[in-house]
Each structure stands twice: as C-alpha cells, then as structure tokens.
C-alpha cells in the first residue's frame, strides 16, 4: 500500500515515526571526511606516526612492503616455523637483507658469552696456540688456554692440545663443525631434542660453560669484545648494553683477573672502537649474578656492583639477575630480598614465562 493511500488519521500518527527513521538514516551514513581525520589522528599516535617520510623513504617503504607480501605468499613462511629450521630461509630473505642495511638504535639484551658468532670462536680462537680441549661425562666440551697441560678433574678427561689433535686429523672440517655444534643449541630436530624447558636450559648452560674457557682467556677477552662490536656495527647497530658476570678472565700461567680488570678492558676496547667508528655511540656493561645465589651472596654482589659503578661510571650501567626465571620463586619468598633494591633506581622486565602447567614466577626488577 502506498503512503498516499493510508487513511489521513493514520498518516498523521505515523508521520513523526517516519521523520525519526529518515533522520537516523541520514545521520547513520559515516562522514568520509571525518573518518579520514580520525584515521590520521590514530596513525599519528603510533611510534613514528608524526615522522614525515621523504620521497625516497616512501619509495623504500613501498619496496619493502612488496617484498614482505611476496614472502608471505611463498610456500614457506619463516615466522610460522621453528627458528632452527627457519634460519637458513631468513638468511636468504630479501626482507632480512634489506633490514640489515638499515640503521638501527641499540642492542639492549646481549649476554657476553653469546656476543660473537661461534664460527669466529672456532675458526679464530681455537686455532690459537696453547688451546686445550676436553670432553665431559655428559658429552659437552671445555676449553682452556695454558702454558702446560691443565690439571684433570673427574668431569673432564683428558685435556688435548687442539693444535696437536688437528695435526693428527689432517682434515679439520668435521672437528670444527662438531665444536660449533657444541657451542650452540642448533639441531636438525629441535622438537625431539628439547622435550622440555629444563632440557633446553641444561644444554644452554653447557654451551655457555664451553664458551667461557675461550672468552675468558685475557688476550681473547679483548679481541672477542672488539669482534662483537664489529659485528653489531656491520648490522648498523649504534649502541650496546652487554650483560656480563665480570669473572673468569685468566692468563696463560693460570693467574686470574678481578672484575675491575674486566670493566677496564671493556672501557678501553669501547673507547678504541668508538675512535675508529665515530658513528658508533658506545657500549655499557650490566653486571649479572645467577638467580640461584643466596640472599647474602646477592647483597655482597649488589654492594660490589655499586662500588664498580662509582669506579667506572662511563661503562658500568647496572645490575641484573640471569638464567632460568623459575628459580626466582624461592628467592622472592624471602622477606629480606627487598633490602637488595632499597633506595636504588631500577627498570622492569616482563621476564620469560614457563610454558606448561606450572604458573610463572612473580615478576622481578631486572636492573637498576
């Protein structure tokens, strides 16, 4: 029935309803101009949202977006794969190689024993004179530089001079590949090799223990840090914060150095590198302590960290607790723990949650 055919009284009664519906219909259509303004306001609040790109930067952004879309449409998508399996694809990725060339800010969470590529450790450091190696009962390795054969202990026997071993083998490629595997977590089948977090942590600490004997040798200590700065600089990283226990530096005769020596070495190498690479902003050290330490040991280390910061303000950045976060639960239950951070400035980290039925431990301030 047409509106004109409705009875007059009914039409008059329905007229306000029709007008309201018509008004709602009109006002329900979004105003494109206002919508565009709202989108621009939201975009401006994002990180970098108020930075205006130049014409060349817009061209690069378009090219980068195109490369990303091509990678996403490919048969294998690295972000959806286990990193060990995706790593070769990432290294060949046009997106990754483009990002490597772009300038970056800071690397803020690198541990001293994982600063440099293990290939450099094996191909350079283990080929130096007086480098000994032994195999432990659990199949991991240990290294030591010494003017004579190191003393044997139950967990590691016998010590072999790598120079002599390589001479006997002739072809050293298999040995070098084996040593690189011992210094990393990489394996062909990670899902089967690492069935739980505990297994991963055990293997992780074995690799760090192996590297410590190489990195801790005083001449290598300085060369290793300089090599790490070079590798970061090659990736256009301009600043480093390095976590280090500041211990274990030793000489060929077995004598050891204290933490002040380590900080002085870090400071000297950083100054030397910045002088040769003016675009690099520098490096600072965060003194680390294992989470399993007792409260009394923590207090001693905290006091030591404060003293070191006063002595080396240029290079000493702070204090941190490292290794498996699940260890922290028992430490946090001790009421005297708060004394460690009383009156100190500190930052926070979200930590690394444990995957599984066990709830994650409480959060902890990571460094001051």
UniProtKB/TrEMBL annotation:
Keywords: Signal. It is an enzyme of class 3 (hydrolase). One of its GO terms (molecular function) is adenosine deaminase activity. Residues 34-99 form the Adenosine/AMP deaminase N-terminal domain. Pfam families: A_deaminase_N. Residues 1-28 form the signal peptide. It comes from the Eukaryota. The keyword Aminoacyl-tRNA synthetase does not apply. GO terms for biological process: adenosine catabolic process; inosine biosynthetic process. SUPFAM superfamilies: Metallo-dependent hydrolases (SSF51556). GO terms for cellular component: extracellular space. Its EC number is 3.5.4.4. InterPro entries: A_deaminase_N, ADGF, Ado/ade_deaminase, Metal_Hydrolase. NCBIfam families: adm_rel. PANTHER family: ADENOSINE DEAMINASE, ADENOSINE DEAMINASE 2. This is adenosine deaminase. It comes from Paramormyrops kingsleyae. The lineage of its organism: Eukaryota, Metazoa, Chordata, Craniata, Vertebrata.
């Amino acid at each position: 029935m047409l509106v004109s055919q409705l009875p007059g009284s009914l039409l008059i009664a329905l007229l306000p309803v029709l007008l309201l519906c018509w008004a709602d219909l009109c006002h329900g259509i979004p105003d494109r101009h206002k919508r565009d303004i709202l989108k621009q306001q939201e975009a401006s609040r994002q990180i970098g949202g108020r930075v205006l790109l130049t014409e060349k930067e817009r061209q690069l952004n378009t090219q980068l977006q195109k490369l990303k879309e091509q990678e996403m449409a490919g048969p294998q998508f690295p972000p959806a794969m286990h990193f060990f399996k995706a790593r070769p694809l990432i290294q060949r990725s046009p997106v990754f190689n483009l990002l490597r060339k772009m300038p970056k800010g800071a690397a803020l969470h690198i541990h001293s024993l994982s600063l440099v590529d293990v290939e450099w450790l094996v191909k350079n450091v283990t080929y130096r004179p007086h480098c000994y190696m032994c195999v432990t009962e659990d199949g991991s390795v240990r290294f030591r530089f010494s003017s004579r054969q190191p003393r044997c202990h139950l967990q590691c026997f016998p010590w072999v001079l790598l120079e002599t071993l390589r001479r006997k083998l002739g072809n050293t490629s298999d040995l070098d590949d084996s040593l690189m595997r011992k210094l990393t977590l990489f394996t062909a089948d990670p899902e089967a090799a690492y069935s739980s977090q505990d297994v991963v942590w055990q293997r992780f600490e074995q690799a760090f223990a192996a590297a410590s004997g190489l990195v801790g040798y005083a001449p290598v200590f300085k060369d290793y840090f300089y090599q790490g700065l070079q590798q970061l600089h090659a990736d256009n990283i301009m600043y480093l914060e390095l976590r280090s226990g500041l211990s274990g530096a030793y000489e060929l005769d077995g004598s050891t150095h204290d933490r002040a020596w380590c900080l002085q070495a870090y400071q000297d190498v950083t100054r030397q590198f910045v002088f040769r690479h003016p675009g690099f902003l520098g490096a600072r050290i965060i003194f680390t302590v294992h989470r399993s330490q007792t409260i009394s040991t923590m207090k001693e280390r905290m006091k030591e960290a404060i003293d070191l910061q006063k002595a080396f303000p240029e290079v000493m950045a702070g204090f941190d607790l490292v290794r498996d976060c699940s260890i922290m639960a028992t430490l946090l239950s001790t009421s005297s723990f708060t004394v460690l951070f009383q009156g100190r400035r500190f930052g926070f980290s979200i930590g690394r949650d444990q995957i599984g039925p066990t709830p994650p431990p409480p959060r902890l301030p990571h460094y001051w």
